[in-house]
Every structure is written in C-alpha cells, then in structure tokens.
Amino acid sequence: MKITVIGAGHVGATTAQQLAQKELAEEVVMVDVVEGLPQGKALDMYESAPVQGFDTMVTGSNDYGATAGSQIAVITAGLARKPGMSRDDLVEANAKIVGEVTEKFMAKSPNAILIVVSNPLDIMCSVAHAKSGLPSQKVVGMAGILDTARFRSFIAMELGVSVRSIQAMVLGGHGDSMVPLVRYTTVSGIPLADLLAADRIEALVERTRKGGTEIVNFLKTGSAYYAPAAAAAEMVESIVYNQNRLLPCSALLTGEFGLEGIYMGVPCQLGANGIEKIVDIDLTKDELAALSASAEAVKGTLSKLNL
Ligand code: TXD
Q1: Known active-site residue 174
Q2: How many CB atoms are located within 10 Å of the residue 56 CB?
Q3: What is the DSSP code (8-state) at residue 137?
Q4: Ligand 1: which atom is nearest the Cα of residue 223?
Q5: Helix, strand, or coil (residue 219)
Q6: Which domain holds residue 81?
Q7: Which one of 132, 227, 250, 286 is at 20 to 30 Å from 237 when CA atoms are compared?
C-alpha cells in the first residue's frame, strides 16, 4: 500500500503523520509545490519513527514521479481561509490547484481512490471527479466526519460525558447550511433530546455550523487541521482495511435524497473500492428541506465554475 498526500501544509502533513503512526501503508508520499517543504517535513516525520515505533516510510517530493503506483491520494492542496473569508471565496483559486494536481497525480496512479479535502469541499470533489475521469465511487470528500466530530465534541463538553459515548451524523454541504441530524444523535443509544433542552441543542447545532470559523478566528492565519487530519485518516483506514464503516462523506448524488449531479455529505459505506454504498435514509420534511437548502448552496457555488 502506497498513499500520496497532495499538499504538505497543515492538514496534509498532519494527515501524513497520522497515516504513518497508524501504519496504514508501507509508504506515505507527500507532494507540494514549495521546494524543500515536503522533503523536510517527510524526513522530520520519518525521524520520529524510531521513537514512535512505526515502520511506514515517509517521503516528500515536488515531482509526481515519486507518487507513481499509489492506491490512495488525499488531496489537501490549495488555499485555506483567513478571518472574514467564507469557504466559497476560495473556489476559483482552489479549483485551478485541485484540477492541476488531480491530473498530474492520475497520470501516475490511474486506478487510485481520491479523498478530497480542499475547500470549498463539495465543489472540489466535483473538480477532482471531472479531471480524474474516475467513476464517482472512487472520488469521495472529507467534511462530514469533521463536522460530526465537532458536534460530538460539543455535546460531550455540554453533558460532561465521554466523546466515545456520543453518536451523531451531520449531512449536507460543508458550509453554514450543513445539516446536523438531531433525531439521529444519541448518547449510548439515548436520544439527545431526552438529555438536553431544545434551546441548548440548537446552540450546539449552531456552534457546529460555525465550527470552522471558530477555529479560523482563533488562528487568524489559517484554518483547522488536527481534527480534519484525523477525519481524513479515518476514511483512509476504512478503505485500506475494507471496513465498510458508515461515515458521513461527500459523494456524487444520483437521485439519493432526491438530489442529483452534485457532491454533498451523505452516509456512505467506505471500503476497498471507495464508496461501496450510499445509505439513503428516510428524513422528515424539515430535514429534507434543510438538505435541499444546503444542496442549493452547493449548486450556486458549482455554477461559478465551468466543469
Ligand atoms: O473539512 C474540510 N474538508 C477541511 C478543508 C478542513 C480543513 C481544511 N480544509 C481545506 O484544506 C482548506 O480550506 C484548504 O483548502 C485545504 C488545506 O488546508 P491547510 O490548512 O493544510 O492549508 P495550508 O497549510 O496552506 O497548506 C496547503 C498546501 C501548501 O503547502 C501549499 O504549498 C500547497 O497546499 N499547494 C500545492 N501543493 C501542490 N500543488 C499545488 N499546485 C499547490 N498549491 C498549493
């Protein structure tokens, strides 16, 4: 197993570190346009191997020759938000970058599975899908696991319960209109609504929707990367071990939830072939309305590009 991480910035390097520490591949290759950056970070990371005790080789390059024969690529190349920016403000610059890196990577690893991370996420999935020529099953986006992890963290903090006892699912586009499904949120099987007042739940939902901005406002020079990297690594793990974990991921919709032609966050089983199945669960009228509003937002941004 060889995994490429494209973009050796905050999310890319942290993802590579997680993949190596979990020994999910024999080799993890980081590529970036900045000379020396992927090489330096890769060497530093590999030098942690004797202490951490992992056998994954970590290398860095500015050339896609080094990525040849990869089974998976995690695409993190592109600009990140700064305070005051929305994810959609990145669309033109990042479409160019994601399009370019997808083509270069695919030329060397034509059968790989692509996990897209760059923002605006759902739109960048469409770009990678169009440029790669891959079936949509092999192009999947990371956002829902992160948004769900944020929701779970906030619930755990509010209730003083372990994060491990919280199950939740956040669907929709990776933007302010994302759809945390409160009805499917439980604390060890107990519905959240039985444990927390409605106004508190609404406050946590709102904090989740703005979770990315909360971090950007703290950091000022960039956006979140520890939780995003952990989420990307979970997707890689499910694919590498063919675990078929049911995870919220951005997938190309072909009629599921009444939506078509856009990438958006839905429950997906991830296995050796990428998206093994999209699970089209029943939603209430209100949940469906929230999901279509989110889909409209994604379509609006997508229409700015000529794909
Ligand atoms: O939930 C999610 N999907 C996200 C998405 C969560 C967190 C971050 N999210 C997005 O990931 C974020 O909005 C950005 O679009 C990407 C990467 O975020 P990161 O924080 O890692 O940005 P950095 O640190 O600026 O790193 C980006 C790297 C940097 O090293 C650039 O030199 C490199 O991308 N880059 C390129 N690499 C290869 N090829 C090209 N063309 C290129 N252009 C820039």
Answers
A1: yes
A2: 21
A3: G
A4: 20
A5: helix
A6: 2-141
A7: 132
Q: pLDDT truncated to tens, each residue of the chain (307 aa)?
A: 999 999 999 999 999 999 999 999 999 999 999 999 999 999 999 999 999 999 999 999 999 999 999 999 999 999 998 899 999 999 999 999 999 999 999 999 999 999 999 999 999 999 999 999 999 999 999 999 999 999 999 999 999 999 999 999 999 999 889 999 999 999 999 999 999 999 999 999 999 999 999 999 999 999 999 999 999 999 999 999 999 999 999 999 999 999 999 999 999 999 999 999 999 999 999 999 999 999 999 999 999 998 8
Nearest protein CA to atom 26 of ligand 1, as residue: 9
10 CB under 6 A from ligand 1? yes
Residue 307 lies in a domain: no
pTM confidence score: 0.98
Nearest-CA residue for atom 13 of ligand 1: 80
> Residue 271 Cα, ligand 1 centroid: separation in angstroms?
25
User: Residue 103: what pLDDT?
Assistant: 98
Does 24 share its domain with 58? yes
**Ligand 1 pocket, residue 15 CB under 6 Å:** no
Q: Is 94 in the pocket of ligand 1 (CB under 6 A)?
A: yes
Q: Which residues of 163-194 are buried (b: 16+ CB within 10 A; e: fewer)?
A: eeebebbbbbbbbebbbbbbebbbbeeeebee
Best mutation site among 41, 67, 76, 104 for ligand 1 pocket (most ligand atoms within 8 Å of CB): 76
- Whole-number Å distance, alpha carbon 167 to ligand 1 midpoint, is 29
Dist. CA 41–CA 25, nearest whole Å: 18
Which residues, at least 6 apart from 71, have a Cβ–Cβ distance to it below 8 Å?
1, 2, 3, 109, 111, 112, 113
* Catalytic-role residue among 174, 208, 211, 297: 174
114 and 52 assigned to the same domain: yes
Task: Note whether residue 122 is domain-resident.
Answer: yes
